[in-house]
Amino acid sequence: MPARHIETSPIGRSAMRKAFWRILPLILLAYLFAYMDRVNVSFAAATMNADLGFSATTYGLGGGLFFLSYALFAVPSNLLLVRFGAPQWIALIMATWGLLSAGMMLVRTPMEFYTLRFLLGVAEAGFYPGVITYFAVWFPPCHRSRAVSRFCIASPLAAMAMGGMAGSLLGLEGHGGLHGWQWLFVAQGLPSALIGLLVLLFLPDRPETSTWLSSVEKQWVSGELAREQAAIGAPPSATIMAAFRNPLVLISGITGIMLIGTVITMSLSAPIVLAGATGLDPAHVGYLVGLGGIVGVVTLLLLGNYADRIGDRLLLSSLCGLVMATALAVILAAPSALAVALAYLAFAAVCFAMPMLNSSNWADMFHVQELAVCGAAINTFSQIGAFVAPFAWGAARDATGNFDAGLAALVALSLGTAALTMILRNLLRRNQVRRAAALA
Fold it and tell me: What phi and psi values does residue 250 have, to the nearest 5 degrees?
């Protein structure tokens, strides 16, 4: 794909600087708590499973059910976001998932665990694809990877926060008559509901309705986005069924199944896997996971900037897939505690960046008329992997007594992700050549 020209005009720089500061801090904060509420169960797992008598299969199914409901409700939730507006819809779903996450403290039986994880997925389903759709009306292509990367650093930041907070919260065992894992869910769930109110009050809707962009800045944003839409071309149909038949959606979705399945499975089980492979105690495992978050933040920011400069997000994404496969292979082999720790840091460096690169490419592939449906459809496919992979991982652990089979499967999935990403890149290049020839 040709490199994109980065806008250097004073008007463009001014408009984007204002948009970045008005939008990204609030969206970042929202996603930070969304991610913590999604994966805090991995830190609660050891003590929660022991207290409640949950097997690895029970935990794996509960962990995966979140992503099943997330997949089922991503498209309708994103359509509701388009209908009611991003600030209103994001605020509502944040309040809902915050209360549900805090409600995890009340879990006593496997069915209660399954139900709350399923409902949490319903509530969060529209957030990520909704934000990508929202960004498409604010950030032109030459700024999009940077915007998405600033939003996506919430994932490694959440890992850092979880690594630092989890030990302290779990250490509250017995305080107030609650287990430590119950304190963990309450302390990280309720703030999400409060942040939802901030989103409703302060998140701007569209550039043309903003009061802090000048008229020429609004014209610049609309002009840049209009040029992008003209190059993509309006779709013949923007229906849900058309989206699920679109080859670009199908290839991106299958890639997402493998990628998100790998990332989520490892994220949910990283503390347990690292403890077994390195012999570190829970506190030091938490520090290692937190350090992985730091590495992930740095990599996300660097690759977000670099992708906008070279205009080839999918090439970078494919390379990240190869790094991820290599890192998981080293963790599987476990030659030494140091090698495993370094391999985990390499995994953390790219596992957050690869989804960012792929999803920031959605608006490059689809016209704005179909983006909400197509982006959510890709997300729906992706969450199938996030449902199936943790369950299969837990079942394999119960059947074999170790994580070797699961780690080997994740290596294969990472290699498949890298290969399919390159196939998608080549297909897009051919489509762009054909479109340019037709317009000539």
Answer: -65, -45
